[in-house]
């Protein structure tokens, strides 16, 4: 394997809520500039990993290193800029496309130029003419594209995607998949993508993690999904686990 840098390094990370262990002694790497897909049964702890990764949760024990530095050493604002987060429901403020796009900068007391807004809309495949339209008029696929464009305003080096295509039709899904691959290739952005769609995990991922009961049961190149070594992973892939 060519030598790869760690964008996020997990060393023996454990995290509990109200006495219940949610992430157990997890060690692994999200590689810089690569797409890692994250699969596992419902409740396995996938979204919790993301919250640990952008500072919404703190590990009880173990270390999380981002670009080689302990996560707690980053000021929260810098961490949120470095680590972008897009969710399934693509929450919008009540306002125009432009206002939503500008929001990450507005919150920092900065402006988003018209040129930059247009560049981002074009990048994600939205017509620049919708800039002044209300987000209420957008389709599900358009909202998700806008949500992704909004995370790119801060030029994150790591992008966490939590089931961003699960409520979309097949065509919009493929559109978003192509967009994420484009972002990864054009900007070298490290992508981590939680998905319940195993076909998507296999085709989009360079690497895949299988998380079951808070444990990283198997990880490696995404082709592992064709022939996993672990019995529990085989059961999960057959649909016997969720
Ligand atoms: N704030 C909380 N308080 C109590 N339990 C929590 C909390 N957050 C998460 N959990 C529990 O932690 C476990 C992991 O949840 P998480 O949302 O990370 O799983 P997931 O793999 O992302 O699931 P899904 O695929 O259904 O989204 C679940 O059992 C959940 O109920």
TrEMBL record:
GO terms for biological process: phosphate ion transmembrane transport. Pfam families: ABC_tran. GO terms for molecular function: ATP binding; ATP hydrolysis activity; phosphate transmembrane transporter activity. SUPFAM superfamilies: P-loop containing nucleoside triphosphate hydrolases. Residues 8-237 form the ABC transporter domain. It comes from the Bacteria. PROSITE patterns: ABC_TRANSPORTER_1, ABC_TRANSPORTER_2. GO terms for cellular component: membrane. InterPro entries: AAA+_ATPase, ABC_transporter-like_ATP-bd, ABC_transporter-like_CS, P-loop_NTPase, PstB-like. Keywords: ATP-binding, Nucleotide-binding, Transport. This is Osmoprotectant uptake system ATP-binding protein YehX. The gene is yehX.
């Amino acid at each position: 394997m060519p030598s790869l840098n760690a964008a996020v390094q997990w060393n023996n990370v454990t995290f509990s809520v109200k006495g219940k262990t949610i992430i157990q002694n997890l060690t692994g790497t999200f590689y810089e500039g690569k797409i890692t897909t994250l699969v596992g049964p419902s409740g396995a702890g996938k979204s919790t990993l993301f919250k640990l990764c952008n500072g919404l949760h703190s590990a009880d024990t173990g270390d999380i290193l981002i670009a080689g530095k302990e996560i707690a050493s980053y000021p929260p604002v810098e961490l949120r800029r470095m680590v972008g987060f897009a969710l399934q429901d693509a929450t919008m403020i009540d306002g125009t496309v432009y206002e939503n796009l500008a929001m990450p900068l507005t919150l920092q007391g900065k402006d988003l130029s018209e040129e930059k807004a247009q560049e981002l809309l074009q990048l994600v495949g939205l017509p620049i003419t919708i800039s002044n339209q209300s987000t209420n008029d957008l389709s599900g696929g358009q909202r998700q594209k806008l949500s992704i464009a909004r995370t790119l305003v801060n030029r994150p080096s790591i992008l966490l995607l939590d089931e961003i295509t699960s409520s979309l039709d097949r065509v919009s899904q493929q559109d978003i998949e192509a967009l994420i691959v484009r972002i990864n290739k054009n900007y070298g952005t490290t992508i981590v993508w939680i998905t319940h769609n195993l076909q998507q995990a296999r085709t989009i991922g360079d690497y895949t993690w299988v998380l079951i009961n808070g444990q990283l049961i198997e990880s490696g190149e995404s082709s592992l999904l064709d022939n996993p070594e672990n019995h529990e992973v085989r059961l999960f892939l057959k649909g016997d686990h969720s």
